[in-house]
Amino acid sequence: MRNLVFGLGILIFNFSCNNSRAVANHNSDMNNFEVLFQSEYGGSGNEKTEIFQNEKDFSTMWNATINAVSGLTDVPQIDFSKKMIVAQHFKSQNSGGTVYKIQSVEQTGNKTEIYYQVIPPNGMSTMAITNPLIILSVNKTSNPQIEFKVQQ
Prior knowledge:
Elements: H1 2-17, E1 21-22, E2 33-39, E3 48-52, H2 55-70, E4 83-89, E5 99-108, E6 111-119, E7 133-139, E8 145-150
Parallel strand pairs: 6-8
Antiparallel strand pairs: 1-2, 2-7, 3-4, 4-7, 5-6
């Protein structure tokens, strides 16, 4: 019985630790953003926004970060004449299960405001240090100013 409980605990832990996902073709109704990758792991652990405006820089980041975290080797194909990539690193969390969900993206001139919701874990969560990361494509602007805002 003791081995059964231990084995069940290991099984639950393994399933709860893999929250990385690549998301394809999940655009907003306004078709102005697409979440390319979202994970509890892969971020820097500090609040930071990165902008990629060319294929070379984006591929380098994807292969160094996303491939290492999730094993996803296929770099999403982006038309950099129309789109740019925004990678948002969130502050480290002391447990798993928190979900960051992009609600909308509003662009005015070169200012891009990305509204997101933070959904805390529902019930049990893993006891692990997480470094959340979201990567999305948005309409390209010149001299972009990106701001992430929590939406209640």
